[in-house]
Task: structure prediction
Amino acid sequence: MNGMKIDFVTNTITITKAFRDAANDYGSAEYTALSLVQMEHPEMKIVLKSVRKGNRANKNKGLTYRYMRKFI
Result:
């Protein structure tokens, strides 16, 4: 199921925010899948997947001395 990954090495269940929000609805497919995994492996911890943000765009990209002289 998308949004959930079971890691037996680290003994964790990694879920995404979207999966967590969908699993909050009782009776949904995500709720059922997560509860089944928890019943089969009660010792596993649930971990929220961290999101890596990309680098910010450089505001000065393309700004050169040649362009500044031309602008002034």
